[in-house]
Amino acid sequence: MLHLSRKMYAKKVDFNILLQNFYSSWQNNLSTSIKTFKKSMPTLVNEDKTISKKTNPVIDQIQGDFKIIKCVGCKPAFDFKPLSLNMLKKIRYCLKVDNLTNYCGDRSYYFLGPLAKIEHALVKYTLDKLIKNGFKLISVPDILPDELINRCGMDTVGERNQVYSLDDNHYGNKWCLSGTSEMALAGSLMNKNISKDKLPLKLCAVSRCYRAEVSSIAEEKGIYRVHQFTKVEMFGACLPEESENMALYFRNLQEELFQPLGLHYRVLDMAKHELGTQAYRKYDIEAWMPGRNKYGEISSCSDCTNYQAKRLGIRSDNIYLHTVNGTACAVPRLIIALAETHQTADGTLKLPEKLNSYVRGHNLLNIQSNFPKFTPVQAHRYKII
């Protein structure tokens, strides 16, 4: 076409008018296509960043959503009909999930008295285990730039994103509420060259997690799927050849946390379509929740290989490291599993012995009903003078 155009402009040959029209049309279409492509280029680049470059070949053989690796323990037997957490009459005194719209919106909750103590007990129990295993505890920020979240492999825009974003017109930059401390922990290593003698690096954090999740499933009411919750997270950075074993190490730690609590659970190898963008392989742990008569996810662990490290510049001797993350304790889900597994006929929670030292030795949860009642707040209109 270039050779043809030169001849046309030089008028060295006579051209048929149809050919000239064809050439003009081709030029116009090409110009439009180039403009469209340039306009779409940033979107295409961002889409490319969100595509997981590879997954473990093992999971290609998984049929359905997951493969069960193993089941631990047995489903508890009751001589009464087990109830869901929300229906346990004595626990209802210290759990508030209804009529909170005037206080904090839907999918929110209050833990009162004993349940608040159990929340702190679970966090302390988990941290003791992790610190004993060489994890470094870090207190992380809950407000992060959207660029960091994107580089970790999570969307901050679009219909499917679960991220709360702050108003950039008001705050100046694009900031978001963190959905997991994984992102802040990864950000703490950004653009760092870590010496090999410090690897593998094992970090952990306790944080509030904010997620704009919605669900119309009846079993997910209450505190199963909420907009804000407390979670203990594990995060690791290691040499490329070590990430597979590190993911298994994280998974074993999760099991060592859950087994002493007397939970029946199963370990799942998740199918490719169930993986996050950054994950090369992901394991889920689901605990049996008798009141719901179904399994519910209480933990997950992902091997992200170098996906996050490349985007964050996490290296060792100019080699991109691999990152691994895992949930050590998602408080609301764990409380559901504990309460429904260890419930008594009178609607009380009998704590596992492992938690006794964390709640001052009280094996049977002492439920009291003398908490302040929550009543709807009536809005008042004030006249401006």
UniProtKB/TrEMBL annotation:
Site Important for serine binding: which residues? T327
GO BP annotation list: seryl-tRNA aminoacylation
Residue ranges the record marks as coiled coil: none
| Stretch forming the signal peptide | none
Enzyme kind, highest EC tier: ligase
What InterPro entries does this protein's entry cite? Answer: aa-tRNA-synt_IIb, aa-tRNA-synth_II, aa-tRNA-synth_II/BPL/LPL, Ser-tRNA-ligase_type_1
| UniProt: L-serine binding residues | T180, R211, E233, N325
Q: Which SUPFAM superfamilies match?
A: Class II aaRS and biotin synthetases
- Molecular function as annotated in GO: ATP binding; serine-tRNA ligase activity
Domain of life of the organism in this record? Eukaryota
Question: In this protein, which residues make up the domain named Aminoacyl-transfer RNA synthetases class-II family profile?
Answer: 117-352
Identify the keywords attached in UniProt to this record, alphabetized.
Aminoacyl-tRNA synthetase, ATP-binding, Ligase, Nucleotide-binding
- EC number(s) recorded for this UniProt protein: 6.1.1.11
Q: Which residues bind ATP?
A: R211, A212, E213, V226, H227, Q228, F229, E297, I298, S299, S300
Q: Which family does it belong to?
A: Belongs to the class-II aminoacyl-tRNA synthetase family. Type-1 seryl-tRNA synthetase subfamily.
| Protein name per UniProt | serine--tRNA ligase
Q: Which organism is it from?
A: Cinara cedri
